[in-house]
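Protein in question kept underneath.
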Amino acid sequence: MARPECESHTGASTHAEHGQRVADMFGRIAGWYDFLNHALSGCQDIYWRYRLAKAARPRPGSMVLDLAAGTMDVSVELLRQYPDCTVAALDFALPMLETGKVRKLKDGREKRIFPVQADGRALPLPDESMSAATIAFGIRNILPREEAYAEFLRVLEPGARLCILEFGTGSKRVWKGLYNFYLDKLLPFIGDRISGDPGAYRYLAETIKSFPDERALGEELLKAGFERVYNVPMMSGIVYLHVAEKPAASVAQPAPEPAAPKAAPKAEKKPVAQKAEAKKSAPKKAAAKKSAEKKTAAKKTVAKKTGRKPAPKKAAPKKSRAKQ
């Protein structure tokens, strides 16, 4: 028997099958999705999405990616905080996008938010075209996550942020185990009674419990190539906001110009001032030479007439050595 390609809580054996099963599951609960999000979180999800959008910090007038957009709550919040930006709202589950389009793309939002069905592992976007990216409660559903990280890095501009909103791992005891009891028992029960799909909220609880903790997720982002990774816990760590940046582009250094060939050394030229000085001192040196020659000739003439030889020059007296 072939070994499963992935460990999926949907029972799928390949990543492609996993993605399709997750899309079908969310498609079945699309009509109840917003109501259950607010009810099961005590409306805290509205604040969480506000914090997510606030951390994105897109460049003014640019395009922002909202992956796993669902019914586009995050897309609407991004547009509210950055009204001059455009939002690419991508999700694998088409019914979720269609539900959000009917309910939320009104009053001019339809000109700024563009829903597109897409796989997070192969985004239909050009390289370095997004000034920020968000994903709320969706990174758990993409297998393998490394492929999604690679796509985020590809489409983000250098220095742009990836902001992830996700549940903390359910393997830790929170609120003395009360939250863990909620995940195991209450969440699947309430989801089943309201949405009529027990599998969807059982899947949600299982993926939360098996999800990496905040440190492990941060290490995944660093390994993928992001930098400046940090997280912000909310509600005692039930939910985490993870922020990571794509490295800024390094400034290319211009190639050094080839060195010019060295010319043969030229004779040093004396400065003009030195030349002028030499010209001025030349006549003085010549006159002194002539004067010395005349004196010598005169001495010789006197010696001939008197018959005396010119007295030899006296040697300078030697200095006596100091006694040792």
User: Anything to note?
Assistant: Residues 272-306 form the longest helix (35 residues).
